[in-house]
Amino acid sequence: MNFTAIDFETANSSRGSACAVGLCTVQDGKIVRCEQRFIRPEPLYFSPFNISIHGITETDVADAPAFAELWPEMLASISGPLVAHNASFDISVIRRSLDDAGLEYPDLDYYCTRVMAKLAWPGMPTYGLDHMAQHIGLSFQHHNAQKTPKHALLWRWRPAAFAAPQICGNWMSHLSSLRDAYTRVDTRRAMDEAKTQRSEVAARISCEPPMSQPP
User: How far is residue 36's CA from residue 6's CA, in Å, rounded to a whole number?
Assistant: First the structure.
């Protein structure tokens, strides 16, 4: 079982404002490499709400590379499919950041441990990462802004990488349902479709007649 667990933090409500990323490479079910990097969002704006969640500020990322500068290094470090808890968020961060930078989408598959957890353990009261980590016996503190920013990030993405092998392993005894738990997503197709939809919406808006002004 080989994959790369990934987790982004954003500076504000924009999915294009990545300010930190954690990457953890798993090979044969074992963690072999972990790293965390700060990213300088453009524009450099941190909302108080996001700071209250992860504790990262403008000062922490002032000398960090922009996403476009860091992306080639990130892409080279990815081994196997991407895995994330609530993967739709992290993939949308990649998609928006690539769009903003004018970069091509990669050929990558991804899996969501939240989706797999729902299939593996139906009926749980919540499928948040901290709860699921506790359920499978991992010590985990999610988004502790009182820690240093680096430690806040570290606490979040390491359990995601630990949890994925156990979630997947739980389903290995249910081979008939494994395809449902391991729904492969063609990232390039999904991203291209989203981009096409945005273009179609923009085209429709540009073709619509202007609203008449009230007398």
Answer: 10
Question: How would you write the pLDDT of the chain (215 residues) with one tens digit per residue?
Answer: 788 888 899 999 999 999 999 888 888 878 888 888 999 999 999 999 999 888 899 999 999 999 999 999 999 999 888 988 889 999 999 999 999 999 999 998 998 888 888 888 889 999 887 788 777 776 655 554 444 444 444 445 444 555 555 555 454 333 234 344 444 444 455 555 555 555 554 444 444 444 444 44
Distance CA 25, CA 29 (A): 10
* DSSP state string for 91-149: HHHHHHHHHHHTPPPP--BEEEHHHHHHHHSTT-S---HHHHHHHTT-------TTS-H
Side chain identity at residue 191, one-letter code: M
Strands (E), the chain: 3-10, 18-27, 30-38, 82-84, 110-112
- Integer-rounded Cα radius of gyration of the chain: 19
Q: Tell me how far apart the alpha carbons of residues 176 and 33 are, in angstroms, rounded to a whole number.
A: 32
Phi, psi of 32 (to 5 degrees): -115, -15
Hey, what are 102's tokens? 């004018």
Domain boundaries, given as residue ranges, for the chain: 3-197
d(C-alpha 95, C-alpha 101), whole Å: 10
DSSP, residue by residue, 76-94: HH--SSEEETTHHHHHHHH
Please tell me the distance from the alpha carbon of residue 171 to that of residue 187, in angstroms, as a whole number.
23
Q: Which CATH superfamily is domain 3-197 in?
A: Ribonuclease H-like superfamily/Ribonuclease H (3.30.420.10)
